[in-house]
Amino acid sequence: MGVYENQILPRLTNLICGIEPLRELRARVAGGLSGTVVEVGFGSGLNLPYLPAAVDVVLAVDPAVVGRRLAARRLAASPVTVEFVGLDGQDLPLADASADTALSTFTLCTIPEASHALAELRRVLRPGGTLHFLEHGLSPDPAVARWQHRLTPLQRRVFGGCHLDRPIDTLVASGGFEVVTLRNYYVRGPKPPGYIYEGVARRT
């Protein structure tokens, strides 16, 4: 990766994804996590302060090594053990059925082959294990969706492959999960990047 992708983008992502309005959402989506949690897109550890006491260990996956340095204070303050186990959500170096729950926040929009990542999450989750997700994606409003399609090529170049127009619930369901709960809404700000999919899906 170049200097922008390796050094600048992780810091930009830390700032944008760490804004105050998203903190309540992170706390809500982390609720119900327990045991061994595999987190794809660990980044700078923005979810660490919201993990419930039932979480024993987080198996962190993220390609941005710089994110680990940005996460240093959160790691030091967290009672949860974090093990960095891989760089690619599409190829998890974990045994089958080795995790109790999984977490993905603002990550499925960016992974090149999100379907591969979901297949890997399904593989490493125990039967009945749950995936908790908080993602932005395709809006049902045709006018907003048109802008999402138009802006996605630029978005991908600037934000490391991020898509504005992925139908997250469809992707999760087609990955072998049953969507148990789902909330859809816009966060404050421009609508194209702000349509949210927040939910929990069970491994089938």
Keywords:
single chain, 204 residues, alpha/beta, seven-stranded mixed sheet, 7 helices, 28% strand, globular
Please, could you describe this protein's structure?
The chain is of the alpha/beta class. It is built from seven helices and seven strands; from the N terminus they run ααββααββαβααββ. Strands 3-2-1-4-5-7-6 form a seven-stranded mixed sheet. The longest helix is centred in the last third of the chain and has 17 residues. It is globular, with a radius of gyration of 16 Å.
Helix/strand-derived category reads: alpha/beta
- Portion of residues in helices? 25-40%
Q: Biggest sheet: strands, sense, closure?
A: 7 strands, mixed
Arithmetic mean of pLDDT: 95
The end-to-end span amounts to: 36 Å
From the alpha-carbon coordinates, what is the Rg to the nearest angstrom? 16 Å
Low-confidence stretches: none
Order of helices and strands: HHEEHHEEHEHHEE
Strand content: 25-35%
Number of strands: 7
What is the 3D shape? globular
Count of runs of 4 or more consecutive helical residues:
7
Lateral arrangement of strands in the main beta sheet = 3-2-1-4-5-7-6
Task: Briefly characterize the structure.
The protein contains seven helices and seven strands; from the N terminus they run ααββααββαβααββ. By secondary structure, it is of the alpha/beta class. The protein has a seven-stranded mixed β-sheet.
